[in-house]
Amino acid sequence: MTQNTETKAALVRALKQYGGIFLSLVMLCIVFSFFNPRFMTLINFMNILQQVAVIAIAAFGMTWVILLGEIDLSVGSIIAVAGMVGAQCFAFGMGFVPAIALTLLAGALMGMLNGVLTAKLLLPSFIVTVATMGIYRGMVSLPTNGAPAMIENETWTAIGTESFLGLPIIIWVVAVLFVVNQIALSKTSFGRRAYLTGGNREAAVYSGIKVDRLKILIFMISGVMAAISGILLSSRLFSAQTNAGMSYELDAIAAAVLGGTSLAGGVGTMVGTLIGALIIGVMNNGMNMLSVPYFYQLIVKGLVILIAVWLDVRAKQAKR
Amino acid sequence: MHGSATDTILKITDVTKSFGQVAALKGMRLEVRRGRVHTLLGENGAGKSTLMKILAGVHTATSGEITLDGQAYRPASPQDAASLGLAIVFQELSLCNNLTVAENILATREPRRFGFINDKALVAQARRIVADLGLPIDVTEKVGNLSIAQRQLVEIAKGLSHDAEVVILDEPTSSLSDSEAEILFAIIARLKERGVAIIYISHRMEEIMRLSDDITVIRDGEYVSTHAREEVTIEALIALMVGRRMDEIYPPAVHAVARDKAPVLSVERLTREGEFQDVSFEVRAGEILGFFGLVGSGRSEVMNAIFGMKNASGAVRLNGEVVRFRSPDEAIARRVGFVTENRKEEGLVLGHSVEWNISMAALGDFTGGFGFIRNGAERAAASAQVGNLSIKTNSLDTPSGALSGGNQQKIVIAKWLLTRPRVLILDEPTRGVDVGAKFEIYKIIRQLAAEGTAILLISSDLPEVLGMSDRVVVMHEGAPGATLEGPDLTPETIMAHATGFQS
């Protein structure tokens, strides 16, 4: 009985929180299936999920950063560096496990540099990550002088191409990372501290939260998530490309903001970000299926983001 | 000026104002005479603003009679009120920062020529108004470039430029320094000479005693009494205003502090260049050590240094052991708590829930394996604090920003109570809090002291410091002027040390 009413209350809360954005997603799906009947198929849906995986995972990391009231523009570059680190590991004859470990470590270190510069030198994260975006992007080309590097390790490439229990491995990765991030954010004191610090940094400091450490750790999470995105992307492409992940940081930010993460900090969830990433994925996929020219896609995407965020803001104001 | 009844310019009789079921004013009376300053005194929520809004034409009285110069007075709008000869200067600033002082003062009444604003005439007219009031302000300056205090003076000039017969000043000195307040007082004197009646609203008792001719006290929306300034004392006015006597406002200490006990916290020659020098004091378990000083005397800076927010030289001892906190988390780990001065900036995360705010500083206590928060324990603790401190909130999930000032302050205190502090620093704990909540906060502080917490109470409110403290450190320009106790604890000696005029 009480169990039942509690579930109901939770459902109402979820509807209030994600209703607007979820409606946008459903409406987009209806519009696309109206123009192309092949859109609303399970196969295409799987396809969308795989395409959106790289953005979604980067967006999970971005959600942490934005929640804290910061921004990470170096995500796209870290994606490219990660692929190149993996490719170089294999070029040096390493196995799969050390290659993965080193790639994740590279992501963590790049994130840590962002965090340390922001927290300890008190530079705005926008400026820091604009700078490191360029630095990391440049570093991708160092080993190959700008040429792409092939990846022939079969375990690595299997991630992006094989299935496990009937589902593509990519989707498993997204699902696991979604659950881990969501739990860490909503159930642990680490997540709570992120919410509190994003809501009021000063009050957090006075309440004994080690804000600098938190900031560095969160930029490291963003770096590691981007590195995982880079692994997925390079495994799908069988190679590390120097221009991989270009401008993906903007899609990741858009996904987080579409999902209700406030750029002012303190507000946001992984559920929202996942829905936001799906909206971006559905738009890309739907318009590709309709052979909409790329420049039109850009315009439409921008407009949809504006409208969706506006609807969401309006709904939240009406609640007050 | 002769105090005869014929001087009456504004008369309010039996005015009632209801908002729905709630009566904001009941049987309000007020009689203001020409050439006199009439202070309206009452706690926050006593009905002062409602009355002023009726006079300004923002609200209409539900019943009762108001006459201005013998005529029935019922302004339909603030413009209407102004044209009838009543000007009001609100405490909130209503100036446009990107316009000049002249443009602001004469907004909507700019002198025109062929339909265009005549800039020369505008500046000349504004200059006349400003010079007339003796304000040291350049009228061609953009308001955005002025200090807050100067803006307040411009606001006053704007209000007074209407040739009013009655001028209402709502807390005009709240952001003025002493010298700027003097300019205002000079303006008030000049207005009095011209026969203008002034309704003055302020919380600063010294200022009220100096400026007023008459004082009317209101409480809970009702008229209490009117007095000539010479007939009353500050203490009597406070008692009338809050409806209890002074000794009832400040709950008595439960038991005397044992003098022979070793201090919990002792500070020796704490110094930070340019902020404070050679600050030394000690506080024992169960003792309330008051800190009094004028704004800028370095009290908050000293506390920030003890709490690990600032570096300072000198020694801080906790239970005899020298400590040097590099950040607040180290201080909290050693059970030192700090209720900061500005609850909205440093105390609360306004967008987050009451529960999250209460558990914030003791989050580690509610964290189990793998960093998971034990929700049940957290909720139970927050709920207990809400009950204990009678925090009025719809639920534990209500955003703290939705609560009233007094309840917000109690949340900040609850947050620190959960850390079970041995030393609790309270910086202006009752600022902007209504009387009822003030009294409850005093009880909490007494209770904490009775349980053995050493308390540092920083306050600019002299009666509060006197009423609550066992001993008082008076700070003056970054140095402790004196530590007073027993018979030395009088308003006169404290003020003498705070202003540096002690013999």
Descriptive account of the structure:
Chain A contains 13 helices and four strands. By secondary structure, chain A is mainly alpha-helical. Chain A has one domain: ABC transporter involved in vitamin B12 uptake, BtuC, CATH 1.10.3470. In chain A, the strands form two sheets. Chain A has a two-stranded antiparallel sheet with strand order 1-4. A two-stranded antiparallel sheet of chain A has the order 2-3. Chain A is 77% helix and 2% strand. In chain A, strand 2 and strand 3 form a beta hairpin. Chain B contains 18 helices and 22 strands. In chain B, a hairpin with a 2-residue loop joins strand 4 and strand 5. Chain B is globular, with a radius of gyration of 26 Å.
SSE series of chain A: HHHHHEHEEHHHHEHHH
CATH architecture title of the largest domain in chain B: 3-Layer(aba) Sandwich
The assigned structural class of chain A equals mainly alpha
Domain count of chain A: the total is 1
**How many extended strands of chain B?**
22
Q: What general form of chain A does the structure show? A: globular
Mean pLDDT of chain A: 90
**Main sheet characteristics of chain A:** 2 strands, antiparallel
Subcellular location (chain A): Cell membrane
EC number (chain A): 3.6.3.17
Pfam families (chain A): BPD_transp_2 (PF02653)
Main location (chain A): membrane
Quick structural gist:
The complex is a heterodimer of chains A (320) and B (503). Chain A has helices at 2-35, 42-67, 75-91, 96-120, 125-140, 154-161, 169-187, 189-199, 201-206, 211-237, 248-258, 270-289, 294-319, and strands spanning 149-150, 163-164, 167-168, 239-240. Chain A is mainly alpha-helical.
Give me the secondary-structure topology:
The complex is a heterodimer of chains A (320) and B (503).
Chain A (H helix, E strand, L loop, with lengths): L1 H34 L6 H26 L7 H17 L4 H25 L4 H16 L8 E2 L3 H8 L1 E2 L2 E2 H19 L1 H11 L1 H6 L4 H27 L1 E2 L7 H11 L11 H20 L4 H26 L1
Antiparallel strand pairs in A: 1-4, 2-3
Chain B lengths: L7 E12 L2 E12 L3 E5 L6 H9 L6 E6 L2 E2 L5 H6 L2 E4 L11 H5 L6 E2 L2 E2 L1 H15 L14 H13 L5 E5 L7 H16 L3 E5 L3 H7 L2 E6 L2 E7 L5 H9 L3 H4 L13 E10 L3 E9 L3 E6 L5 H8 L6 E6 L2 E3 L4 H6 L2 E4 L3 H5 L6 H6 L15 H14 L16 H13 L5 E5 L7 H16 L3 E5 L3 H7 L2 E6 L2 E7 L5 H9 L4
Parallel strand pairs in B: 3-10, 3-11, 6-9, 9-10, 15-20, 15-21, 18-19, 19-20
Antiparallel strand pairs in B: 1-2, 1-4, 4-5, 7-8, 11-12, 13-14, 13-16, 16-17, 21-22
